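SUBJECT: A protein chain and its fold
Encoding: whole-number codes for local backbone shapes
RECORD BEGINS BELOW THIS LINE
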Amino acid sequence: MTGARVLVVEHQGNAGLGQLSDRLTRSGLRLDTVGPDAGASVPDSLDGYDALIVLGGATGPTDDDAAPWLPATRRLLAGGAELGVPTLGICLGAQLLATATGGRVRAMPDGPEVGLCDVDFGSAAATDPLFSGLAGRSAPAVQWHWLEADRLPAGARVLASSPACRNQAFRIGDAAWGVQFHLEALGATAQDWVDEDRRSLDELGLDGAALVREVRDAEPRLGAVWLPIADRFADIAKRPAGRPDQPTAR
């Protein structure tokens, strides 16, 4: 089955699908991007869609006055989790997913994670349809967050953590995943965010140019780790009724 239709909620133009875009399209998915910079409104329901991806952004998950499309986005995420529609929330998207399903988001008590950091996938990932190939491994990822989902809803499964953030990757229900890190981001995106957040980086004592250089140098590893996850998500989205199978050994 090909041609599964995926709703992509993009909160701002410099936080798009990055390296995942071409990979998902080549896997046979049809990507419909909505959001303020995309020029299309967030719809009221997932009718007609086989999967949902909600991307990152500079707002908090309940900053509805600054981002009036967030209530509709939370409803979509809650519906995706409840109905088993394959769903992926990235950074702000993960925080929105946690908030929409009864979790809690807070400012990180020890300060933000910014730049290239490792995330550690635990044994719980071994039976996960999306991340089983990373169980027991550490993987590099771009981080850019001042907030975190510190409390997940009942029944959520934590798949990956880092020293600064316990809930780096989690699953809610059968097929709704949140990742606090940016599996889509490469050097060009890091440069955009450095340009946007230069004052915040200065306050943290971070060298933006060095940060971008580190991400660019890691691009081969970032592709090797995260593009196969895009392939798996595409496979899940294309399955009948969006039901993820258990992973096979590989």
In short: The chain has a mean pLDDT of 94. The two ends are 22 Å apart (CA to CA). The first strand starts at residue 5 and ends at 9. Helices lie at 20-26, 70-83, 92-100, 187-196, 198-204, 208-217, 219-238.
